Amino acid sequence: MKYHHEKVEEKWQQYWAKNQTFAASNNSEKPKYYVLDMFPYPSGAGLHVGHPLGYIASDIVARYKRHKGFNVLHPQGYDSFGLPAEQYAIQTGQHPEKTTRENIARYREQLDKIGFSFDWSREVRTSNPDYYKHTQWIFIQLFNSYYCKHSDKALDISELIKVFETEGNQMVDAVCDDNVAIFTADQWNSFSSEQQQQILLQYRLTYLAETEVNWCPALGTVLANDEIVNGVSERGGHPVIRKKMTQWSMRISAYAERLLQGLDTIDWSESIKESQRNWIGKSVGASVDFVIPNSEFVISVFTTRPDTIFGVTFMTLAPEHELVSQITTPEQKAAVDAYVEATAKRSERERMADVKTISGVFTGAFAEHPFTKEPIPVWIGDYVLAGYGTGAVMAVPCGDERDYAFANFFKGQNGMPEIKNIFNQDISEAAYGEKGGFELVNSDFLNGLGYKDGTKKVIEELEKINQGKGKTNYRLRDAVFSRQRYWGEPFPVYYVNGLPQMIDAKHLPIVLPEVEKYLPTEDGQPPLGNATDWAWDSVQCSVVSNQLIDDITVFPLELNTMPGWAGSSWYWMRYMDAHNENEFASPDALKYWENVDLYIGGSEHATGHLLYSRFWNKFLKDRGYAPTEEPFKKLINQGMILGESAFVFIVLLRSKTTLSNSFLSSKNLNIENSENFLGAALAPKSLVISEEIYNDIKLNGHNYLVDEWINEKASNLNNIKIYYSAENVIKTSVDISLLIGNSNVIDKNKLRSWRPEYNGMPFLNEEEDYITKREVEKMSKSKYNVVNPDDICNDYGADTLRLYEMFLGPLEQAKPWNTAGITGVSGFLKKLWRLYFDDNGLIVTNDEPTADMYKSLHKTIKKVTEDIENFSFNTSVSQFMICVNELSQLKCNHRAILEPLAILVSPYAPHIAEELWSQLGHQGSISTVAFPIYEEKYLVESEKEYPVSFNGKMRFTIKLPLDLTVPQIQEIVLADERTIKQLDGRTPNKIIIVPGKVINLVG
């Protein structure tokens, strides 16, 4: 009876779907275990073998926990809003909903083939109105909340209004904008409704504000920092500029300290925690106010080194700082404007990463030192960011390397004084950046002090003159929450006199409208500006035609949509109660599941999704909706499965020549210039060459063999010598499906028919095999190195794919894919099958196993249990192979061994395990059968094979019971005929016996 994976896998996948085998219950006496994958964005490319890696690992844990008696929630869904679907819609005219739906169907087909134990009854899609209804509701809760520093949590905005009505805001300790004016209760009560709303926007956790954003003109939208790579958009590689826009923002900065402290309570890798700590960027120091004389302007800075205040030589503002245009002198205006414009074309990440370039412009303005009253020149420089701190720095070149380099670069220019040294240290060659080992000099009342005492003293003095105070600062900035896109969650917001109003939750969802075009409107409005029915009737409480807008009862709706991270910032809670129409999840479901016990996903989300998720979870906890402070107890970042790309080398037959136009005309070459004459004369216009020749051309500019080939083919040009440059030679990746079998040899005919540009393309040597260059790199459709999991499942089976991906190496590490290695895993499963069956059917007996059989089984139980608990899945696969080999040698067909073995294998290779369990006579699924328990007694050795040595040299071994005494061992060894032969009548001087270890006869 042979193992046919295709029949077995189809049978059990149908069984699981029909019987809802993996559906979790929200009411169970079992302990709960919630294991979650970062849900996928359903792209049109489908899955490659790198995508399931984390899913397989989480599935092993989920299945193991079911065996261990847990009620396991292991759901799956789709992060289905986003820019790629919208860009595809723009290119093809297809509605994003249609392409998203089709892509999801493809993903589901592929996921089902691999045999994951997902609870599909709880599937979510962030682009479905029944899902984003609750995302809109959460947005409203954020809008109606503020962060109270006194209670250190978010409270309803009505609590703040009560304080304003009775006390004003002078004593309010809340997170708010920096420029909030102080008012009394009487003043508040006298304000108009619009004035009150404007004030409240300065406190709300989500608010409208003019913000510096990353604007991508080509995509027509704002991009988050993590959507920009090397200064261009990750999607499409388009230029990104900094631009001021009125945007919705979220006051994530209010949670900076809690986000920082919470990292100590969760089981995440140190690298991810450190990424978040750096992103949050806590700094302790002081805020200092520098007055611009004869004006109302004040430059506020935050510094971690207030002790160095007497070393301030100049000040630097971010080019986007609001004061730049107001303080710049007429003489400096042109230079400043040009610099600001140039800086706008660089992303914040690019500016932060560029530590080598020094650039800046003097504004012509001077600030006043708070103590000495000396004038301090004010510069702008792109190394200062508007969103970090106050967007301004007090530059102390003697104590900071970047300030030191800046001062020396502009030394002698207008607006750059000599560097002031305030340390009793030499700064002639470099700044002194240490916080110890110095005394302050040239520092007035700080002279003789060090870092700690100097910091304390200067803060006291700043507070006395009301020009500064001690402060803790965070790099973390409020998150821009608006996108100028179509395919995203609509805001539940309409505008009355330009002020945002929330739509009542009972009228949600506000459904994304139909539009004819997905691009921004001609006047620059977001794509929703193309909608004809996108106004809010505040009487009928419904979306109506724009033509009905009268700003009395019918008002315009928000045209921006929410960012991609909106729906993914709370989705794990929706899985807990996925079909609840009235709440995002019921209190009972939330209380039962609490949070995610194990979360698996990519490390690229360290400072995006994972930070926003923690923020939303903490907010919902504050408002009484979430049961826990942190969403994910344990996080594992799976490594990447790398592809092995294939490359060919090509000469592009386009070269300059000195041939005259009359000569070209005589050869019937209809070409206006001689730039591409060779390509016109020859068909085709490219030649495939070897890597060796490619390197020769790169080094020398031409190659003899290529020259000869060209001259032969170009005989109609009278064998005129053709020269070509190294720039005409390229290394290009080709699809690995064009290779013959698992070799590195390319199928030349397949290559020629692969893409139009290869049609008829010759090889320099047609007779020989062409060996491609292979390189390991990221598996990607664009690199043509993608391996489709469907092919592996069809050829070898899903269980083989699952085992092989785990076998490749530790989960967290990157590892290259090599299809050639999969045959060994496939062979292992066939060998496992043969323990249970021969050609005639089941051969399992009820005979009592031998001690060696029990030993092999329990070694495996121990190893696999430890490996799953420690997420070391690759070594489990090795142990399975060892065990099956041992049991095969022992000719084991004993039920007492093979039944537990099937359960052990089940988390890794569930289809074959289910079939084995069924063939052994059991009803139902193996998925909840109790996991085998390791018993140490089966691994306790009763005998020991001792090495017997004579004068330190081992001569033979002898197997003896471990419970023998030393005299008994000695008696047996001396009586052994091999010992007698070795001694040859001699009596040993000494006999060394260590029970359980060694026997040595000396002399």
TrEMBL record:
Pfam families: Anticodon_1, tRNA-synt_1, tRNA-synt_1_2. It is an enzyme of class 6 (ligase). Keywords: Aminoacyl-tRNA synthetase, ATP-binding, Cytoplasm, Ligase, Nucleotide-binding, Protein biosynthesis. Residues 11-147, 771-804 form the Aminoacyl-tRNA synthetase class Ia domain. Residues 277-463 form the Leucyl-tRNA synthetase editing domain. ATP binds at residue 781. Belongs to the class-I aminoacyl-tRNA synthetase family. This is Leucine--tRNA ligase. It comes from Flavobacterium dankookense. The lineage of its organism: Bacteria, Pseudomonadati, Bacteroidota, Flavobacteriia, Flavobacteriales.
